[in-house]
Hints:
By secondary structure, the protein is α/β, with parallel strands linked by helices. Among the domains are: 1-93 and 558-640, Rossmann fold, CATH 3.40.50.300; 643-757. The strands form 3 sheets. Strands 7-11-12-3-13-14 form a 6-stranded mixed β-sheet, with helices on both faces. Strands 2-1-4-5-6 form a 5-stranded antiparallel β-sheet, covered by helices on one side. It has a 3-stranded antiparallel β-sheet with strand order 8-9-10. Helix 22 (575-589) links the parallel strand 11 (563-567) and strand 12. Helix 25 (643-656) crosses helix 26 and helix 25 (643-656) crosses helix 29 (743-757).
Amino acid sequence: MVQSFRLLQNVGQFDNVSAGAHLPLARFALFYAENGRGKTTLAAVLRSLASGNANLILERRRLTAAHPPQVVIGLPGDTAVFENGRWSQLVPDIVVFDDRFVSENVYSGMSVDAAHRQKLHELIIGAQGLSLNNNLQVEITRIEQHNRQLASSAEAISADIRGRLTVDQFCALEPRDNLTEQIQEAERNLAAARSAREVAQQSVFAAVTLPRFDLEAIERVLALGLAGLENLATERLDEHFAALGEGGEAWVEDGMNRMGHLSDECPFCAQPLAGSTLIEHYQAYFSDGYTRLKRDISDAMMIVGRHHNGDAKAAFERSVRVLGEQAAFWSRFMEMPDTTLDTARIVRLWNAAHEAVFLCLSAKSEQPLEMIPLSEDARSAVEAYHTTCATLDDLSARLIELNTNILLVKERSAAANLATLSEDLAILRRHEARIMPAMDAACTAYLDEKAAKASTETARAAARAALDNYRDRVFPAYETAINAYLQRFNAGFRLANIASVNNRSGSAANYAVTIDRQAVPLVPANDTDPGFHTVLSAGDRNALALAFFFASLDRDPRLAQKIVVIDDPMTSLDEHRSLTTVREIVRLLGNVQQVIVMSHSKPFLYNLWEETRPGDRSALKVVRDHGSSTLVSWNVSQDNVTEHDRRHALIEQFIRSSVGIDEREVAAAIRPKLEAFLRVAYPTHFPAATLLGPFIGAARQRLGTPDEFMNVADVNELEALKDYGNLFHHDTNPAWQTVAINDQQLLDFSQRTIRFTRRS
């Protein structure tokens, strides 16, 4: 319960007001203030005390104040202090009806917007519903956080990496077996397709070999001799040939060929040859067998020379170079063995073998009849060379085997679709990127966040179902309560289809206004259509706001603990709705802890005062004080005396005694006293602004008719009283202030006036 405003300093119209400390507030506290005196500031202070919103006070800081606002509110056994922009404690059970409540929850200006519907939703569902709604909002906020995190995680998986795949599709890619080989194959297929013309023109591999040395044949030649030619003869001939000098053997051989037609003479010197032992040796040495032997040796040397000469070696080097170029080309499209060959080494081995073999054959050529063994150096050189030949043969065979694949590459490249091959490679590249550590971590983070979001979505669905079930019960009951209040306010409209709606900004309440059973939307589809702003008057809108407020209080489970503050609820309300508001506020007092009402309307506050018990009520007044405002006690009963009551009391007092009475004032009160009576007694025939003369004339005209409303005696008496009263009224007697007054005559007319106005 709010017990007092102990201090109001530098806020609104209040400069430094501590008078409220001695003005306790009862369970039912009234505040009267003219407009602009500060009652709305008091309502804002109490709203801030409930919510903790410091801006409600700070924004009302006095412009000329040197210090920030300070407020002290008296509470039972304690105080709530607002200082340095914050409250020492809050009183959350305070609820306030004021312009802010209307503008936040019902309408602003002439329209109802989304913010109003959201606030109204909170108002309808109450504390329990707010708890359920908060649970839902927590899950919605978590989902928004998930969405932001998912977006951040997705940014780490850029489109450059995943191509046309979505993040979900990319992260769902399964690992592939032999992916590296598949990518290599796809790259080669695409490369072949892009180089289809070159592929078609490039030849397949041809065999590349090295000539071998036929050691068996060579050794056979080296072992050849001539049967019947003794060793002694051979030795003597060798000595003789040596003595002849260079070319001696050829010279002798030429001579032996010439002896066929010279018989026994030397073909060169014509000396007789009979008895020469050398001739016999010559004949054996240069026989046909010997000639064949030398030819075999010569042929062997020629074969070796032809197969292993410089041209053969140059051709080999050219073949190896072509082979390397082909291998380099085809390696772009298929797996290719290493074709690197050390041709210099091969040629060195080749030359070494060639020279060693040729050396042996040369020795044989010089000594045809000698058995020349193949030297170990020659044998080793040939074996080393033949090993290289075998390596080359193996490489050549493997390349020849690849010709089948080469033909397949040629066939595929000729019929290839570049777009398809490019996409196939791109897909494989995405699979490769997916399993990279960085991308795998990014996808794991994304998928984990997505799973967390799915879990939160399940929680959100459960929270929404709980809120929807609650709203399904609350909203129809609230609609019934609202319409009950509108009926009490005698409103010509009702609300229909009050329902909750969910949108991105949160839950909201929607409704339609019904007039003559026709639903009118809050926001019309077209500017020319009826809507909230056109079908409800200012009084209707204020009655609707009060209905919202009272209905929400009725459904509050903590109603008994509530401190209800109502600031100027009478705006644009007619007399009937004002009386209904009085009754509802008085009824509310029996259900809550405290009611505080602030208004600039004295009649409204008078009615409230009269309807409550003296022990439950207190009244304060906000008044001007040296350019500021202050609080004072308000005597409601004294202020409740009307001008009519004052005139009646004046005439009654004069009848009792004229001592100290202004007789002219008494005489001037007679006519207004009569007019006030007639407005109540004859409301149909004497409405506001009616004059006594026309009223009396109308009464006389209807005397003796079915429409008679005043008898002849009363008409005559009223006319006599009117004539006397007109003597002292400015609009009927300009000299009314100078008319002589007879005390006895005034007493007579005063008594007659009282008797006339007391008639039932």
